Records
---
Amino acid sequence: MLARFLRRFPLVLAITALLGLSGCGYNDFQRLDEQTKSAWAEVLNQFQRRADLIPNLVSTVKGEANFEQETLTQVIEARARATQIQVTPEMLDDPQAMERFQQAQGQLGGALSRLLAVAENYPNLKANQAFQDLRVQLEGTENRITVARNKYIEMVQQYNVLARSFPTNLTAMLFGYKVKPGFTVADEAAISRPPTVDFGTQGAR
């Protein structure tokens, strides 16, 4: 009897460990994974809102005679690159895809900053109510992007701490919960500062 039990002991131990792991952080992984996806969806929503404002901005600027075409072209091309990136749920687990997305959005933000800075040299644009309204909308969008990114970073950090900590890291390995890529250190440093674009009468900083 004892010999039979000893032979079966490794199997019993494995089953016990498996049952223990299934309750060791599993629900937390489920909750944080869903919260991360929700936070990412809000990031995408705000980036899309910014992209949707750009065509009207471009049309308004085109109405200004002799506006610097290179700056306008940069905004148009940057928007095209940013919107061409296919956003999929798998992107959350793909560091390279996440990096490409961040770079494209960063380039678009930089191009917008330059356009608004150049616009300060055109009194007619500064006096154009439609242009000023768009600046205000963009300012609000930039602020919402910052809030949404910070929320996403927070959710990813919580998820990754769970995935790396013992014993929940064993649950992560068992159920395939991988560490998620976040925003780069450079991006996080930028996020910690106020928006780089000043949409007020002083132009871009």
Note: Residues 160 and 179 are 5 Å apart (CA to CA).
---
Amino acid sequence: MYDLECEKVTKNFDELVAVDDVTFEIPSGSFFSILGPSGCGKTTLMRMIAGFEEPRQGDIRIKGKSVLGTPPNKRNVKMVFQHLALFPMMNVKENIAYGLRSRGASSDEIERRVVDVLERIGLPDVAHKEIDQLSGGQKQRIAIARCMVLDPDVLLLDEPLGALDLKLRERMKIELKLLQHQFGTTFLYITHDQSEAMVMSDHVAVMRNGRFEQIGTPQELYHKPVTAFVAGFVGDSNRWNGRVVHPDGARARVETDTGLTMTCVAIDGSTLWPGTPVEIFVRPESISVARKNTQGPETRAGMNTQEGSIDSLLFNGANSRLLVRTGDDQLIEVDFPQTGVNADLSPGDVVDLWWESAHSTCYPSGR
């Protein structure tokens, strides 16, 4: 049985279709994220699951049972918001115990469950602290503990890291994943930040204009995006528009609008035809770089090649990147291994670039 199922869920506000025929299933105990730009419908979908909105059509099932018409307080789902909504006039223990008291739990049960949940989130000694005495990361964990003490079937998280600074956000990605494993509860997480979705999730749904473009593991979304939108939204890519010149089934020679020619492949294996307008994507890590004429042509046999000069070096340790400007004034981003012959590359150097045809993926324009 799945913890959460949505079947053909649709929601509109007057003429605006916010969620359009969405279907998905979340296996028990998994971390599932909905990733998409602002305004794509992901918050509306979560509000329907929580019970704050009702779909115009479709069904929502929790543990196999439809919850349509069931008010939010009768659904065994809990929600963590971006601004956490902790009660500042209560200490940590009182915040966590609030839901249990509302249910009529005994004092002994409340004490036992609060102690247990604080142990599980790694904060056993903060029960009597005031909320304003906690760090940002501790507040995040207390907000989750306040939900988890009620044993929800599904925990909904609405961009809960958005208000944190960068370093704390990076640390909390790891902590959230560890907490989900610790509790074994199904987490449904919505975000516009691809790094959050990719790092934490077992499966991710990429949402656009109220519909799911693709559902898959982070690896599937990154290496096998089924649409140009997913290819451009998930991960970094060099991107060109062009037209097919010489097709060969799912592989074709294309010419970009800037005059660059390369061989690319249709990721879904579809046949490409002469003159077809396409969008082409190449990941920065797929491109090799060397100072001009320092590696023989046999290294690049059968590869897509391009010459350019280094415009900028974006230093970020092991994740550093080159911006290479080509003769047609196109900037190509290249991940930069700062070892061996490439250790002293610097702006102004003329370089050769090359990459495998299989790493140039293309989609008919509009897909």
Note: The mean pLDDT is 90.
